[in-house]
Amino acid sequence: MTRLLRRVARSKRFRFTTAAVIAGSGLLVGLETNEALVQAAPELFDLLEHMIIAFFLLELTVRIAAYGSKPWRFFRSGWNVFDFVIITLCALPLAPQPVPWNQVARVLRMLRLITVLPKLRVLVKALVRTIPSIGYVSMLLMLHFYVYGVVGTFLFGKNDPVHFGNLQIALVSLFRVLTLEDWTDLMYIQMYGSANYGYDIYPEAAKLAQSAQFPVLSVLFFISFVLLGTMIILNLFVGVMLNSIAETTTEAEVQDLEANREKGYLTVADELKLLYRQIDGLKTNVQTLSVRLKHEKAAAQEEDEEAVALSAAKASAAHQKVANFH
């Protein structure tokens, strides 16, 4: 019986059926936002909701029972714990009018597609792995914003107090520039002066502004900000994510191939693919070790040079003392 349940839980049909029900539950929640539609057929919506919950409970039971006499092993996977929590929250109150937190759980059921579809799971893992690298790129982007915000406030604050009156407003304006939403209007205000462009819709601010023209500085400022921010720094985000997705996909593929090898399902082509992946992994490890070795050699060489210099200094001091003594 346990083998049958394990086979069912791991079958593609079971996974695809679960994915279809999850998608249907998300569609049902979306339809329930239309009050007129719900009031027209409330019994139908209640019936569909109870059927979906019953299927999820059956699915969860099958997956837990597939572990046989060791059902606690089901909870070793974080994805399984996530499924268990979401299904439990949805199944607790089986009343026609669920409490608000239950409605939230019903919306979160759509996230279970991540646990059902392996490709989505790979993408989520890749996104999680990029968090440290994205943190450093975000610091670079914040530094980029801060420098340009301070410079823009000093340069254009008097001419354009609406957009560069202080550092906070300047940062918001630069975010607008980064999204490329009418960023040329901000540049034209600085090029032609607030008295000649853009301030006809700000009559009160126009009285406070000291119009000045920056035909060269404004062009250099805004174009360099757009090029550095949009074309370079944001592309770093894309590059980091693509690299992480490639690494995570390769790891998932190797794990699947190794699992198929243990089951005896591996073909000759799969054996070659697994071998190539392992060779690529070894190449990466060798490159990493070679870089570490270079850094360690450079550090050791610097330590040796410092030790030699210190010894020479001590010897020179000793000779000086002897000379002074004589």
Report the helical percentage: over 70%
- Radius of gyration equals 32 Å
Mean pLDDT: 81
Shape annotation: flat
For this structure, what is the CATH class of the largest domain? Answer: Mainly Alpha
The chain-level structural class is mainly alpha
Number of strands: 0
Main pleated sheet: none
Please indicate the percent range of residues in DSSP E strands (runs of 2 or more).
under 5%
Overview of the structural elements:
Helix content is 80%, strand content 0%. The model is unreliable at 94-98 (pLDDT under 50). The chain is mainly α. It is flat. The longest helix has 58 residues, at 268-325. The chain has helices at 2-10, 12-31, 35-40, 42-65, 78-91, 100-108, 112-116, 118-129, 131-156, 161-164, 167-178, 183-192, 203-208, 217-263, 268-325. The protein folds into three domains: 2-116, Voltage-gated potassium channels. Chain C (Four Helix Bundle (Hemerythrin (Met), subunit A), Up-down Bundle); 132-245, Helix Hairpins (Orthogonal Bundle), CATH 1.10.287.70; 267-325.
